[in-house]
């Protein structure tokens, strides 16, 4: 148990569906992140939130929409995804935005059909 | 553009062997190098290295950084099947925090009984 919980663990969706990924951290951290991990590729940073404010959007397509209602919860809303969006989506948190030491959740394995 | 190259990409050894994993990097304004272990899905933090030549140790794992030659190694002695995982190396740019983290593709280590 890393203190960061992600749901669901697995998700299969069609290209016309809308779904959401949820992340919750119990560590009292101030910064939260979404990463994408595709096969044979390095972890890619998608979004950064610091004290609920989005500070980074790494040119992510608008079909991915993050939401951070408070410092403990982070969502990733998905709509009209493409098959190439199939990947492991990892949530992470850190004490502050200036810390490289991340605590990761177990991820959501997403398959887009 | 920051770059992290890990080698080998995969490695199979027998229980009890010693392994050395490599990470070379190019980064503007280096701040730290981090190692993570990814079993199943969630990467977990192992080490953060900031100073050259100082070994960090935790049980059978140790790591050292060479800032002149721009690389780090992760050593695992007396390997056990529980060491089987993907080992991720990341470098942090000064002032970037987790925003400024660049990950390598990882080394997939398999320990055979």
Multimeric status of the protein: heterodimer
The largest β sheet of chain B comes out as: 6 strands, mixed
- The Rg value of chain A, from CA coordinates, equals 13 Å
- Please give the share of residues in helix of chain B: under 10%
Order of helices and strands of chain B: EEEEEEEEEEE
Helix content range of the residues of chain A, please? under 10%
User: What is the N-to-C succession of helices and strands of chain A?
Assistant: EEEEEEEEEEE
Low-confidence runs of chain A: none
Helix- and strand-based class of chain B? mainly beta
Question: How many strand segments of chain A?
Answer: 11
First-residue to last-residue Cα separation of chain B: 41 Å
- Strand count, sense and closure of the main sheet of chain A? 7 strands, mixed
Determine the N-to-C terminus distance of chain A.
31 Å
Strand content bin of chain B: over 45%
Estimate the global geometry of chain A from the Cα principal axes. globular
Largest interface here, residues on each chain?
A-B, 29 and 27 residues
Structure overview:
- The complex is a heterodimer of chains A (113) and B (113).
- Chain A has no helices and 11 strands.
- Chain A has strands at 4-7, 10-13, 18-25, 31-37, 44-50, 53-57, 64-70, 73-79, 87-94, 103-104, 108-112.
- In chain A, strands 2, 4, 5, 6, 9, 10 and 11 form a 7-stranded mixed beta sheet that branches.
- Chain A has 113 residues and is mainly β.
- The model of chain A has no long low-confidence stretch (mean pLDDT 91).
- In chain A, 0% of the residues lie in helices and 57% in strands.
- Chain B has 113 residues and is mostly beta strands.
- Chain B contains no helices and 11 strands.
- In chain B, strands 2, 4, 5, 9, 10 and 11 form a 6-stranded mixed beta sheet that branches. Chain B has a 5-stranded antiparallel beta sheet with strand order 1-3-8-7-6, with no helix packed on it.
- Chain B starts with a strand and ends with a strand.
- The A-B interface holds A 2, 4, 31, 33, 40-43, 45, 48, 55-56, 88, 90, 92, 94, 96-107, 109 and B 4, 31-32, 34, 36, 40-45, 48, 88, 90, 92, 95-106.
